[in-house]
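Entry 12.
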Amino acid sequence: MESDSYFTTVLKYIHQDPKKAGLCGSVDEYKWSSYKEYVQKDGIVDYELALGIIGDGSFAEFMNGNADGRCLEFAGPGKRMTDEELAVEIEETFKMKAAMIRDEPKESRNRIFWSPY
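Predicted 3D structure (tokens):
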């Protein structure tokens, strides 16, 4: 994770997503969630890192609050693509094979994606 803020956004996304998807009524009901381990401070989860970043207040209060950050959400029009279709789109847009971008160091990948094309 690149920052504490992004870490907490992702943490909230992970725990709130099953509710948003309609798989449960609240974040503490999803069977496969690590939510209870954070609240009970028990199990295999390294809860101390998250609780240290979140600060005062309970994990439950934090998780039940509004998700104020965006994580893996896209606000514009879009379409689903297969891996093959995405590879073609990348090649047409960036004039290079998708595998070449994948193998680039992070800084170089960012320059490729964020430069005007």
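Annotation: Helices lie at 4-20, 35-40, 47-54, 59-64, 83-94, 98-102, 106-114. The radius of gyration is 18 Å.
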